[in-house]
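Render this sequence as a predicted structure.
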Amino acid sequence: MLMLKNKLTKLSVLILILPIFLSGCISITSKNEISLGGFFLSNTQGDEWGHRTNVYVSNNEPRTFAGANITKIAFDPQDKAAIYLGTQNSGLFYSYNYGIGWVNALTYAGTINDIVVHPRNKCIVYVAAHNKIWKTEDCSRTWSDIYFEARPEQYVPSLNINHANPDIVYAGTSSGSFLRSLDKGNSWDVLWRFSNNVKEIIVQNHSDSNIIYAITQGKGVFRSSDGGEDWEDLMKLPVYKLENVTEDGRIFTAIKQDDEGLPFFKISGVKISVAADSDRSQPDALIYGNRIGMFRFMGNHWEQFNLLTPNKKETIYSVVVNPLDGDDIYYGTSKALYHTVDRGANWIIKELPTNRVAGELAFSPDNQFLYLGAYKISK
């Protein structure tokens, strides 16, 4: 049986004279900002939130991106205080001080779909925006486009990098192409063609960057163990559902599959939002969620989580797994944030700091903060 605990977000007035907040609790500026978008962070596991959207400008006039829709949160693996945000139609924002102040870049690029920072050189950043891939080698001072989709109706939704060999960069397109560059983005080859949008690319294990997941829109999850040359359809693997947790361990039962595959395959339509994150506590594991539920890939099978949100009733927009503890998981919907510290046996409901959806969730590299990017869904 699931145990439910309610914890309400505490909202209090934040005096902005001293922006340093690296100790103690965080609270957002005022209740008037609860409907705003932008970037939020918490050092209290989502019980209290800070709203960090102030932009540095040359004329010292106050500017904020509090109304922006956040499309991506990314990090510099070498600098725990560095954060990169993608937005809808407002370009790229980056901060080197945990979001205390931000710099706006690539304002001409349109909606930012994905961001990857070089794991050994913080000044090299790749950005997917609309139908192009952009690159900077001088810490965002100048940018050059290194790839573009010739058809304007197509776009580049996903990027990632090979951490063992950062010269290798991966990209996915809305037409289903999986691209690889062996020379830092100077040239690209199509390694595979999926039948639908490659929404996200996850390099699962940094010690073996040949293990790659492709999260597609409408066709589920695929896995490659050879750097993208060949792919396995993970939708055809068995699924087990958690029935009980005892002193001897967890009891799972098999879910009957139908002729069309797994129960979560049928609902993965083109317009259905999907979310995924790697589980680094396991050598080859992934968390995947959509409107039918949330599932953990365990190498040769799936385990379905017991959730508080009813299947097929509430879309999961974001999922994040604690990189230091695979049992510590959050998922976000349009109504609330859900948190478990025991791999889904029990869940805690946490109030969102905004009336927009939790479009993006992430842990800071030092595991000190939980980050949230708000996104307003068009009705």
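Summary. Confidence is low (pLDDT under 50) at residues 1-31, 256-272. The longest strand covers residues 79-87.
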